[in-house]
Amino acid sequence: MEKTWNNKAWFLVLPVLLLVAFSAVIPLMTVVNYSVQDTFGNNQFFWAGTDWFDDILHSDRFWQALQRNLLFSFIILALEIPLGIFIALNMPRKGIGVSVCLVLMALPLLIPWNVVGTIWQVFGRVDIGLLGRTLAILGVDYNYVRDPIDAWITVIVMDVWHWTSLVVLLCYAGLVSIPDAYYQAAKIDGASRFSVFRYIQLPKMKRVLLIAVLLRFMDSFMIYTEPFVVTGGGPGNSTTFLSIDLVKMAVGQFDLGPAAAMSIVYFLIILLLSWVFYTVMTSRDAEN
Amino acid sequence: MNFSWMAWTLPTALFFLTILLLLVGMSIWEYFAPGGAPRVGLLRFETTRGDRLFISLLGAAFIHLAWLGLVGPNLWWALALSILYAVIVFRTV
C-alpha cells in the first residue's frame, strides 16, 4: 500500500512548539546573551566576551561544587536503583496488599520538595527532632548543622526516602507486565531465583530502568530545594551543589553574567551525561 | 514588543541564526533524502544524521570550553577544530 504523506499534521505540533519556545528556548537564548555581558541593573549591558566563562572554568568554587554534585548523583543512583528493584521484587502482585503498597509508595512523591526539606530539617535536629534526639540519647554524635559528613548523610537519606518510591513504582510496572508463561517456563527448567531475576525480570525491566536512571540522575544533579532547606549548603560549603551555588551567585550576589555562564556549562554537562546514559542503555538494548 | 530585556548582541544573534540555519538545512536535507540515513559507525551504535549533528554541536561546545580553559580566549582555532570534528563525525560516526 502506498504511504500517504500529509504534512498538514505538523500544524498540530505548533502549540507545543510555541509552548517550548516560551518556556525553554527564549529563556535559554536570554541566558546565552547574559553570559557574554555584564549588567548593573536598569537594563544596561556591557560586552564582556568570554570573560565569565574563563572565570568559571578557572574557579575552584565551581569545580568543587561540580565534584560534590557528581558524587551526590553517583551515591543516589547506587542506592536508589538497587533498593528500588529490591522493594519492587518483594511487593505483592495480588490481593489488598497491592493497593496498600502502591499508596504507601506514592505518598513521599506527593510531598512538595520544600516540605520534605522542612520535615527532615526538624526530624534531624538534635534538640527537638525525633531522629536527632534519639541518636543523641543513644550516644551517637550526630549533628548535621556542625558536621559535614552528618549533613551529607542527612541529605542522602532524605533523597532516598523521597525518591526511591519512583524507582519502585517504575520497576513494579515493568515486573507486572511480564506474562506468567515466562515464569512457568523458568519453573519447568528448574531455574533458580537469581536466574529468574537475571534472565527474565531484569531484561524485562530494562526500559523502565532506563527511565528511572535518567530521571534520578537528572533530578539528583539538579537538586536544590531539599538540601537548601535542610543545610543551606553548609556546614561551610560541604553541601553546596551547583544549583545552590548558582542561585547564590545570581540572586544573592546579583552576578548575572557569571551565573549565566555557569548555567550554560552546567546545562552542557547535564546534556552530555544524559546523552551518554541514554545512548549506552538504548544501544545495549538494541544489541540484545 | 520590546525585547531589550533579552540583551541581544550581534555575536549571540549570529550564533543563534547559525543554529537555526543548520536546523533548516537539515530539514531540507531530510526532505530530499528522507529516513535520516541511519548507520552504525565508529561509536558502534546506530546514528541518524540528526544524531550526528547533535554530537557535533555538543562536541563543539566542549571543544570551545576546553580551549578557553586550557589555551586562552582566542577561540578561532577552537572553531576550526570544531568544524574539523563535525566533518569527522559526519563521515565516520
From TrEMBL, chain A:
SUPFAM superfamilies: MetI-like. One of its GO terms (biological process) is transmembrane transport. The keyword Phosphoprotein does not apply. It holds the Pfam family BPD_transp_1. Residues 66-277 form the ABC transmembrane type-1 domain. It is found in: Cell membrane. The keyword Transmembrane applies. InterPro entries: MetI-like, MetI-like_sf, Sugar_ABC_transporter. It is a multi-pass membrane protein. The chain crosses the membrane at residues 70-89, 96-115, 160-183, 208-225, 259-280. Keywords: Membrane, Transmembrane, Transmembrane helix, Transport. One of its GO terms (cellular component) is plasma membrane. PANTHER family: GLUCOSE IMPORT SYSTEM PERMEASE PROTEIN GLCT, TREHALOSE TRANSPORT SYSTEM PERMEASE PROTEIN SUGA. Belongs to the binding-protein-dependent transport system permease family. This is Carbohydrate ABC transporter membrane protein 1, CUT1 family. It comes from Xaviernesmea oryzae.
Automatic annotation (TrEMBL), chain B:
InterPro entries: DUF2160_TM. The keyword Transmembrane applies. Keywords: Membrane, Transmembrane, Transmembrane helix. The lineage of its organism: Bacteria, Pseudomonadati, Pseudomonadota, Alphaproteobacteria, Hyphomicrobiales. This is Predicted small integral membrane protein. The chain crosses the membrane at residues 12-32, 53-70, 76-92. Pfam families: DUF2160. It comes from the Bacteria.
